[in-house]
Design a protein that fits this description.
By secondary structure, this protein is an alpha+beta fold. The protein is 51% helix and 13% strand. It is elongated, with a radius of gyration of 24 Å.
Length: 336
């Protein structure tokens, strides 16, 4: 009955999770005409890209620029209307991806919080129920140890075999998904615990706000990117904001081993003097933060790139498959 009660939510988590494992790849496939460019010798400065977008969309507000993940990707300029994609080699505007939810972002929100304002605790506790079902399933399987499907028997026996076979072969992956999902769902408690276990402490927070200096020019986004590269050797900056007179540059960067799309490093820079206020590197992060980052990478399948994404995507689908076979067993037993 517990499985039936949580079945709808667990099914939605499994289906949406299998899609989210390839969220960046799906987004690229959908918008290749916007994102893909022909590489050339050297891109134009980011300042020129911002200027082109400001001219093309008068009155808009540009909040930042995401550099292409490779030399064949356009720059994405964040505006109030949405993301404007610009060829950094020719400064041609390739098009606008409007702001607002699309089907992929809706899938993401369903997985996180059922696309509601109240759904996150429900999803979190559903993860706990799923963890219980996975562990109890192993307990129930152990006496029979059945891992094959016998044909030509009764429908009940067929569903029983499928339930056991799918369950035992996907056990480890469903257990990993459940454990990492519970960590994320209860991260307000899990992350401090990770810091205590690793005997580490979060880095001291640094305010992204600075004192305005009227009459003093702020450094350009390109200068901020150069400073970030020097502050984190080996890391590639991929996002630079457009700052106000009281904002520091918060440049985000990734190292080659950072497989998550968002990266896990940043450099905070005084927008007037160019002084580095903070440089947070994923390579030197405290133990607690590393545990948190690794947990998310495992849950999303990013930890080993495409192979682990495929594994986690298939494992996510196994959750609703297990639910289906379990329901069929329950129905057959009721009929008997």
């Amino acid at each position: 009955m517990l499985a039936l009660a949580a079945g709808v939510i667990i099914t939605s988590l499994g289906v949406t999770g299998s899609i989210m494992a390839f969220e960046p790849e799906i987004d690229h496939l959908q918008h290749r005409a916007l994102m893909d460019v022909a590489p050339a010798d050297a891109p134009h400065p980011v300042s020129d890209v911002i200027t082109v977008v400001a001219r093309a969309y008068p009155g808009t507000t540009v909040s930042g620029v995401t550099l292409g993940a490779s030399s064949s990707r356009a720059y994405a300029v964040a505006t109030r209307q949405g993301l404007v994609y610009v060829n950094p080699y020719t400064l041609d505007i390739k098009g606008l991806k409007p702001s607002g939810p699309d089907w992929l972002s809706t899938v993401h929100q369903i997985h996180l919080r059922l696309n509601t304002t109240w759904g996150k605790p429900v999803v979190s506790w559903s993860g706990v129920i799923m963890l219980f079902l996975v562990l109890s399933g192993l307990y129930l399987w152990w006496p029979v140890k059945r891992a094959t499907v016998t044909t030509g028997k009764t429908p009940f026996r067929t569903w029983y075999d499928w339930h056991n076979a799918v369950g035992i072969f996907s056990f480890v992956f469903l257990l990993v998904l459940s454990l990492t999902g519970v960590f994320i769902g209860f991260e307000s408690s899990a992350v401090p615990l990770a810091y205590r276990v690793t005997r580490s402490a979060p880095a001291a927070p640094v305010s992204p706000k600075i004192k305005a200096q009227p009459g003093v020019p702020q450094i350009t986004p390109d200068a901020a990117l150069d400073i970030a590269r020097a502050a984190l050797p080996g890391a590639t900056p991929f996002f630079v904001p457009v700052v106000s007179p009281t904002d520091a540059y918060n440049v985000r960067a990734r190292f080659p081993e950072d497989l998550t799309p968002g990266g896990r490093s940043r450099v905070l820079i005084d927008s007037y003097s160019g002084a580095v206020l903070a440089a947070d590197s994923s390579r030197t992060a405290p133990g607690g933060r590393r545990v948190e980052t690794l947990n998310r990478a495992i849950h999303t399948g990013d930890v080993f790139g495409v192979p682990s994404k495929i594994v986690m995507s298939i494992a996510s689908i196994m959750a609703p498959v297990q639910l289906l076979t379990g329901v069929m067993l329950w129905v057959r037993r009721k009929k008997k």
